[in-house]
Amino acid sequence: MLSTFDFVLRLCRSTLRKGFAFPDLRVFKSEAMPRGIRGVASKQKESFPDSQSLSAVCGGAVARLLGRASFRRDLAIRPPSRSGYSPAVMRTIGGLIFLFVAISSLFGQTPTPAPASIPDMKVPAVAVDFRADATRPMPPLARVGVDTAEQQPLMLREAIALALRNNKDIEIARDIVKIAEFDLLTARGTYDPRFSAQTYFERIKNPATSVLSGASTVQTDDVTATTRFEGLAPRYGGSYRVDFSSIRLTSNSAFNVLNPSYPTALTFSYTQPLWRGLRFDLPRRQIEVAKKNLSLTDAQFRQRAIEVITNVQRSYWDLVFALRNLQIQRDSLTDSRSQLAHNRRMVAEGSLAPIDEVAAQNQVATFEQAEFMALEEVNRAENNLKNMIAENRTAKIWSLSLIPTDQADLTLPHVSLDDAMALAMQNRQELKQSDLAREINLLDQKLYRELSKPEIDVVGSYGMVGNAGTQVTGTNPLSANNDLLRARVNELSVLSGLQPIPVPPTVTIPQNLLGGYFQSLSNLGTNNFNNFRVGVAVNLPLRNRTAEGQLGHSLVEGKRIATQREQLEQLIQVEVRNALQSLSTSEARVRSAAIARSTAEQQYESEKRKLDAGQSTVFLVLERQTALAVARGNELRAQTDLNKAIAELQRATGNSLTANNVTVTAR
Asked: What is the reported pTM?
């Protein structure tokens, strides 16, 4: 029993190793297995009936039940196997095991869908078999809009000075600073006193509604003039007001003693906050914010100046590279033409094949293209520099050929990371702008805290009045009847032997009230008639959600500014680190590029000598020639990139103005 189990186990392992193939592979022919059964192709004998094709799929067990005759014939023909079982029995057992595994696989796996076919993209045939005219003459090597005969030497310092004087961004920044100055002047104008005046004529007719009206229709005419002088106190939030009024009044009432009269009045009023607005208010906040904005625009102007200086330095060294690279390409073109002439002589002598002359011609054409591309780069670099230093588009400098005179500075500034970060934190204008934004936010918080308080004000006023006029000479209607009655009573009293009723004293108008307008002003100045008032005004809004919302907004804004400050400091640190790393890399590139250029020159000269001696090929000579041109360009690029890295370090540390001895004034 154990040996039978071991045999079945070995048979299973053999079947799995063979990919579920049948033990006797000579009986079947190749046939693809169904998807979902992982196995090799089975084989089937051609003389077998269709039932044995089914055995190739299912493992053979079911098919052999249908084809017992074939099974018996195979049993009679096949000799016993080494294990003691006949081949037919072994195939039957293997087929059953394979059938079990196949059915399990069919039920345990999900069929993989066939990939969708991707349609081929149809590319239209455009310019088929196009060939340029190789016999067409080469255009002249000239620059558009530039007279190369008129050259203007230009130093880097001169370019920076021209940019700071003529650059449009700098001019715009200066205008922004001037706008901030006028904004500050506007804010301070809040405390300018205001003077107002008004004059008018007025006539009023009223019906008589009382026995004391003095006329059946009371008509009053007056000419009134009023003036006011008012303003805000620059400290403690108070407000003041001075009112003056003068009137010429005439009336037809019989009770008027002075007609016309000239009443005048002068009143002083002052309101002093006791809580809200005592320490800080909106006008003071506007002035402080205007001052901060002026400092902010000044910092922005300096930042823009630093950016302009850095861009001028980059463009200047780009122009240096472009001009020298043009010379390198022209030298390479000259070498390639000399090599072409040399190859032609050797082809004529029979030392080289004609194809070597063709290779040299290809090299000449390649360097001709490089020469024109280098010329285009010169034009682009020069136009970029002119755009920053030219006064306008009609300036003469656009038609001149700029010749940079400064040599590449290969002296590296030795500065540590800590020192560079200290300079950046001290000089970067972005940090100053962030500080000013934080200070403005603190002013907003201070204002909104004040507005959240109750409004309690002390209100006081003091007034003086004056009057004068022309005395009325007519009979007083109030005392006229009394005089007649007193005279009759006195007559009767004399007849009766009684004492007469004495005449009451007459009330006379003071002499200082008799006169015209100037007498009224004089009476006003004596301050004999005055009034005053003192009180408290309270304004208490319920809940005051407006001020609470504004205060909460300013607090969140302050938190946002602080977060942006941290983000800005990290960004500055990244820029300083990258600038120092770029400086170190540029130093290594200068040294390596110099070595590469020197070795490329030696290899090129050596390869030419070997070609003359018949120990090299034209292909290698041309490769060395191309490599030399690339090495020269790399050395030049490394030198100019080193100077651009120095400029970038100056910008990252905010030291561009000091390093270039530039003093900028925005006002």
From this structure: 0.67
